[in-house]
Write the structure tokens for this entry.
Amino acid sequence: MFQLLNDLAAHWRSMFPEANPGEFRIVPEKCPENMDGELTVNAFRYARLFKTAPDKLAELSEEFLSGHADVEKVSRVKAFVNVTLNPAALFRDTLADVAGLLGEAELDVEKRKRILIEYSAPNTNKPQHLGHVRNNTLGMAVSSLLKRVGNDVIQINLVNDRGIHICKSMIAYQRFGEGTTPEKAGRKGDHLVGDFYVRYNAELSKEIKELRAAQPDLAEKSDEELFLFTEIGRATQQMLQDWEAGKPEVIELWKKMNSWVFAGFAETYKSMGIKFDHTYLESETYLLGKDIVAKCLESGAFCRRDDGAVICDLGKKLGQKVMLRSDGTSVYITQDLGTTLKKFADYHPDSMIWVVGDEQIWHFQVLFGVLKKLGYPWADQLYHLAYGMVNLPSGKMKSREGTVVDADNLFAEMSDLAFAGCRERNSAGEPDDVLRRRADIIGMGALKFMLLKFNPKTTMMFDPQSSIKFEGDTGPYVQYACVRIHSILRKAEAAGLDYSAPDWGLLSAKAEKNLAIMAAFYPVQLQMAAEKLDCSVVVEYLLNMAKAFNQFYRECPVLAGDVPDDLKKARLALAASVLKVLEDGLATLTIGIPDAM
């Protein structure tokens, strides 16, 4: 950070030796646009440390900074001290040492943590859809962000590969599959299984409709209540019982269909660039919690209700939670209890994060409440990163009706839209295969950027057409800024311009200095985003940085013939350093940069 702030902090200590404020840093603020200056020191923040009035501290600061070698001009507005730095000092402490600047984003060693983050959590009865894409994008970007600031991050997936919904696809395959396979059908494995899930629900709806017509007394019952009244529903329930009993032919079919889905999921994850450190399967963990519940019942932590169900009393706020049904079967909270304890035993993290939709907020409040009641000391370090729904202009998605926005189809659509844009700009006549590879990077970047643009809690509308535009608040806009800088640097290299030792003091234009000021705040923005688990902070920063660079590019010619060589070299060095900041930010969001656009 800025040397003059370190010097000012030392000056404060010398002026108030009796205060002994301990270790602290002066955090600069960007000077408001309507004030004269580049940085602002807010004396209100520090006056209490030195047991003096804010105005008095600001007055002393103005006096000290007026004589500082790095300062061009200083002014005071009440307790705010506004500073204009001379260019050489400004760039020395920022973009002239861009590697050091980027390194400032890393947390002090004692503040770093071992963090386990669970996300994705798909079901093996259907392909992943737009909701999963938001989950995956949030999970991998937050993981990357937490790693970027120095934490040790373990990425976990928990796949729901068992249960009644899985049996629905299996029953439909048995009845209507005619021995097809993904290879025979020419379908991705998870798509094929999803087709049978949709077919199952169509058959179930048909039987329920016929049942209501034949027995008017059932007309008021819900579809869920009528499930076991139907033949296909009873067959599905029997299959679940057969699976739990380990019936060989059921297990064989289950393994075969799950293998198709897992192969499909692997392709989806590869497209997004996701790699998990470990994947847990619910079929291997769903019974873990039952033993824990039994022990808690024996110890008195849980108790039996009159109907035989085992409950946990969590007090007035959370109430009583059933941990085992009266028939001895487990509920979701039972499974999550066991899986959470296994994850902790396997990895011993300092904290755990779940990336799950906001419809599960209550569930996680209860889960965390149970763990606290059981006395686990790490239960206070559990966090549910809840996110809102994501919709398309066409409306909400329904898996049972087959109206979901399939993830792979969405990826293809984004790539196609980007491909069309690349073709329009293809003045060099590059072949389609080159443009397609480029379009894949642009399309995926546009998708991720738009999904990360909003605070996770926001229910958002995703418009593919708007997100892919090369202008505006989009991922391609930031990617294009990077591509433009690469192009400038290639032209400079071809012209034999060596900008490795520039005179940074030549960069006195407002647009030039603004880039340095913005870059200075990048480490703080990364740490703030990591603390909040909110990548939209980084998105907003990158958009503003790209806009600031484009303004610089318009106002300050870099390679124009009438620009002196020494100024060209300084501006080239400035552009190269800005590029490193933009690249670092996009990489933190797991977004790639194409070679051209």
